[in-house]
Amino acid sequence: MLYFAKEIIDLYQTSQSLNSQVKNLLIVAESIDVEDSSGTKGRVALIDNLHKAGYNLRVYHYTKKIISLEGIKTYPLKENRRSLLFLLSRLERHIRYKFNYSLNVYIERIFGFSFTLLNDRNSIARELERIEDFNPDLVLTLSKGGSFRPHHALLNLPKWHNKWIAYIHDPYPMHSYPRPYDWVEPGHQRKRDFFQQVALKCKYAAYPSKLLSEWMESYFPELKGKRLIIPHQINSTKDVTEEIPLFFKEEGFSIVHAGALMGARNPIGLLNAFQEFLKQNPEAKEHSQLLFLGERSRYTKVFNEVIEEMPQLYCSNRNLPFSMVKAIQNKASVNVILEAKGPISPFLPGKFPHCIQSKQPILLLGPFYSECRRLLGENYPWYSEIDDRERILQHIKSLYVRWQNKDKMEVDYSGLKEYLSVSYLKVIIDDL
Question: How distant is the alpha carbon of residue 391 from its chain centre?
């Protein structure tokens, strides 16, 4: 089985001499609250592993509440609540809540961004400008979703541009997404102009995915020559709760999808294949489960209808604690990575390292061209397009047979575990 691209293995194996001098890293993170999004979970894992790699870190974050990271100096960034932009943002919010009418569409058409984002940008930049007792060797900006607030702020701090690692977790702006996610946002050109400035001014552009780096470079040629691939990290220091919820059958054959089911992540092919599996293997009904762990989605109504006839289906319809989800993933028979139907998926899902860490088979459902498939290998045995019900059914049947022979259930992901590890991360950073 091919675990990851040959050029990455070669880079790791040929890195003979590492810089022994401890680097000072200033990290500007939009959030370090792991419960607020899958993106933040990935950023915090990266911060933790940079700490474990021995770097001297200072983490400034805009979480707007006090959060500590073990052994790491963290500093909350304060929102400027006395600016004109703050007053305008609250006026817009008041109108939205009272009249159920958003002015942001018109605001973004004119200014490119909401008053809230612009005030947040200025607030972060103002707080960072006051730092006088720390001289960073590198400045790393980490964001989530589509805001890129720390990147906005760093553009206003040219003294750090020659040290700036701009971490690009997703395509930007939305028009740059692959189908079916792409659409033209209000203020699209201003958003594009902003990111072109990021591409021009940053020293390095870091991505969790090789395909994402190539994808973004096709939209912003200024990014070429600045590429760093820093995949989502396996973070073994995070505690995993020992409490397993009653709805999960630890000794059963469990297929688990953890995470949000956005509209384009259509689970119906998987659901239909599982229904057919139970029909063809009635003896499996007593000990088999298909679980969707995440908040309500457009598919919740379908799930609720199916559950009435198929109690083997479980949907949490809410976000569960991160530690609980990881515990379930570790004990699952099969972990599912479900991606959108489209020509390409350049994303590396945040759950990917958790699935690798579990050592359980991954049922990969997504496009032929995807970062997950690139890493798992072209000959990975449990891959299918999301709507190929027959092929998904065959995978479930083969995984069920494998589960029955429990001593062969674990998968050797050792190569990928190294790729997602602290030691490989250190190779990347020490080489800068």
Answer: 27
pTM of the model: 0.92
**Segments forming the whole domain that contains residue 318:** 253-417
308, 223: one domain: no
Q: Supply the pLDDT for residue 64.
A: 86
3-state secondary structure of 309: helix
2's torsion region: left (phi>0), alpha (psi -120 to 50) or beta? Answer: beta
Total domains in the fold of the chain: 2
Q: Cα–chain-centroid distance for residue 107?
A: 29
The C-alpha angle with vertex 40 and arms to 108 and 350, in degrees rounded to 5, equals: 105
Q: Cβ distance 240 to 246 under 8 Å?
A: no
Report residue 178: phi and psi, to 5°: -75, 160
Among 365, 375, 370, CA closest to 417 = 375
Task: List, in order, residues 6 or more apart from 221 with CB less than 8 Å away.
Answer: none
Q: How far apart are the first and last CA of the chain?
A: 31
CA-closest candidate to residue 131, choices 60, 201, 83, 61: 60
Query: Can you point out the beta strands (E) in 168-246?
Result: 204-207, 227-229
The answer to whether the CB of 78 falls within 8 A of the CB of 123 is yes
pLDDT of 98 strictly over 50: yes
What is the rounded radius of gyration, in angstroms, for the C-alpha atoms of the chain? 22
What is the torsion angle, in degrees rounded to the nearest 10, for the CA atoms of residue 64, residue 65, residue 66 and residue 67? -90
Q: Can you give the CATH number for the domain in which 336 is found? A: 3.40.50.2000
Residues 159 and 225 in one domain: yes
Using one digit for the tens of pLDDT, what is the confidence trace for 372-418?
999 999 999 999 999 999 999 999 999 999 999 876 678 999 999 99
**Shared domain check, 279 and 184:** no
Q: What is the pLDDT of residues 32-81, one digit of tens each?
A: 998 888 889 999 999 999 999 999 999 999 998 889 999 999 999 999 99
On whether residue 235 sits in a domain, the answer given is no
Q: Is residue 335 a contact partner of residue 349, using CB atoms and an 8 Å limit?
A: no
DSSP 69: B
Same domain, residue pair 226 and 336: no
Same domain, 290 and 333: yes
Reported as a single tens digit per residue, the pLDDT across 349-374 is 999 999 999 999 999 999 999 999 99
